[in-house]
Amino acid sequence: MKAHHLTTTLTLCLIAVAVVPAVRSQTTSESPPASGSTTLDDTLRQKAVRLDEIEVTEKRTSALTQAPTESRLDVVQPQSVIDISTITNSIAPSADYTMVANIAPSVTTLQANGPGLSEAKNILRGFSDGQYNVTYDGIPFSDNNSFSHHSTSYFPAKIIGRMTVDRGPGTASTIGEATFGGTIAMQSKDPRSDLSVIPTLSYGSYNTFVGNIEANTGQMQKLNGATAIGSYQYMSSDGFLTNSYFRRTTTYFKYLQPIGKGTTLTFLTTFNWIQFGTPGSVTQATIDANGRNFGLVNDPNNILSPLYNYQTKQADFDYIGSDTDLGNGWRFNNKLLTYSYRNGSYQTPTLGTKTSKTDIGGTYQLNAYRSYADIAQLSHDDSFGTFKTGFWAEYIRNPRYQYLLDYTLGRHTLDYNRATTSDAVGTLAATTYLMVDFMKTFQGYAEYEWHATHDLTINAGLRYAHFHRDIEAPVNQTTRLTYFGQRTDANSMPSVAANYRIEQNWTAYAQVAKGYLAPNLQLFYVPDPSKDNVKPQETTNYQIGTVFKSGRFNGDIDAYWIDYKNYPLTITDTVTNQPYYALASGAYYSGIEAEGTFSVGRGLSLFANGSINHAVFKKSKLDLPSVAKSTAAFGLVYNNGGFFASVSNKYVGAQKIYASGLNPDLASTLGANTVQPAYTLADLAVGYSHKLRRDSFIRSVKIKLQVDNALDRQLQIISSLSAKAVPSFTVIPNRNYFLTVSGEF
User: Fold this and answer.
1) What are 507-560's pLDDT values in tens digits?
2) Is residue 729 part of a domain?
3) Could you give the CA distance from residue 436 to residue 509 in angstroms, rounded to a whole number?
4) Global pTM exceeds 0.85
5) Facing residues of 649 across strands?
6) Is residue 605 part of a domain?
7) How far is the first Cα of the chain from the last one, in angstroms, to the nearest whole number?
8) Of 98, 293, 475, 622, which sits most exposed with the smallest number of CB within 10 A?
9) In which domain, by residue range, is 351 found?
10) What's the maximum distance between 2 C-alpha atoms anywhere in the chain?
11) What are 188-220's pLDDT values in tens digits?
12) Does some domain include residue 498?
């Protein structure tokens, strides 16, 4: 870890400790509860209190307060809610959002370099990253080209207040490019109602350090009860894989300002700077020769040196929101926002260029985008139900390029001698691709939630989506041809759902809804995109479920069937011998999911969740690749007398792995294939937190030991398969430890 970052973190902690006593007397120590309607879930919870990150105010001794995952009684589709106590007490301090979501049924992920120490992806019901939404405070964000996500780039676990994994397309008011497969929805961490400073230091395996300082203003009465939270985090690690370092700084600020009695303004901004080495997957021969943790090589003359395999990123996420009670049941919400991502990547190094056989060559790739958007909703409540209408409008500019380099001649020296077309001259001779993608998105919706009876609620609505892309590519990706073109796609998505209250603490629901996936930029990476016969991908979701809650038991179960249409497929024109995109028939997904927590008593609860998942191509009847046959998470949670602990086991069932080249409509095109066996990983967390007197200098302290892969399973998961059936692997890190100490001042 760089010394100046540690010094900065410790200095901020000391300054905050010195300032708090002087400022605390100027703020109120008590705050009224937030106004608003009480839900059935809140009524059942009564005085049960979720743990803040530090403060311990009530014992967590019921299934309602100890459930690692749970569903709400008023849902209309399967979901799992993961609250801040699970995030802070049961997950590694270096975690990203994919690790938080991993505890939910039908969700899987892999952490190749240690917890949160490299890019990771979730798979949700077999839908891969890019086929479902990821949102933060209701704002969808993603890479503009493929709608995928970068887990290290935006929201470390420390600035996540709660997560909801929605396994379905939502209602008409659910916005995003990929309602197709569901939504992983994060909520930002809110300011606390009292003045506090919370420094956190964590150290663990692979020389991993996390330093975080959080400050809360408390309610500022002179500003009409405004509150703010700010934090700074520095994280560094050598990583499980050799020479695969990771560095990140994160700043976060959120400000809530009440205006009068009916309006609250929210200002949020966060910025991340990240740099890390980028090792690739490995074959069994590489593992046998170099060990399980082989990644990169500390040798500037080797193409696997981190000098030629690393990424540097910057990402920001900012919005100004307003929530206004207009009176007579009317309410207006609006978010004006922007977010950006910039990734400079040094990659694909080679030994030997046309200049010299001993030169080291490679590529520099830039992917940068800036989004501007507005999200607005007008709603009306009355005794009959709730009406909602609104829109999401977004504009994104996305420059992308890749240049060939000769590192031996100079770190940023273009390699003009590796031109792949004879007519390329000047800079274009060293250009693999050079393009700008513009995307304009509009989604509008209207939905009505009708209280048909005291116990029955019906939600029906319609969402309209319109996507327009403009491509300006002097050198198009893959083809290296010049292409200037555009594409427009639009569709309407209806949804109907119902929730019925069987008893005060027991409900059932059913849903029929369409999901949608906007066209991928990859559709333009063919010689003549106008020949593409492709429609946007769609799903029709049929789901039923039931939710039950009591102090002793908290559980839910659901079943789903999904019709996936318009599966994109690359084929070759028999006349021109050139590739273009067409449609395969699609696939069917089905399954059963359940989760539950049982309170044994004295602060101990047992939990389990699981799923049985099946996905098959419509025509060939082949199983879809990389879809786990089943998932499960099970273990225990304990919290009593300041002591807390959790044991969590994640099981991922067997899944098919295919080599590339499969036409999903023709079983005869299946080439090399294999099965990734099922596996289970166990994590352990133990700690103690103690609340001191409210007027003392140190108000609470907390210490936690986190152990991931506690049973030290030596696992390697198949990531791809060559045409000759040679697998490449993602290696799961050995047992690793993290000790975290926090205090509240």
Assistant:
1) 999 999 999 998 889 899 998 888 888 888 999 999 999 999 998 999 999 999
2) yes
3) 45
4) yes
5) 634, 682
6) yes
7) 26
8) 293
9) 3-28+41-744
10) 82
11) 999 998 899 999 999 999 999 999 999 999 999
12) yes
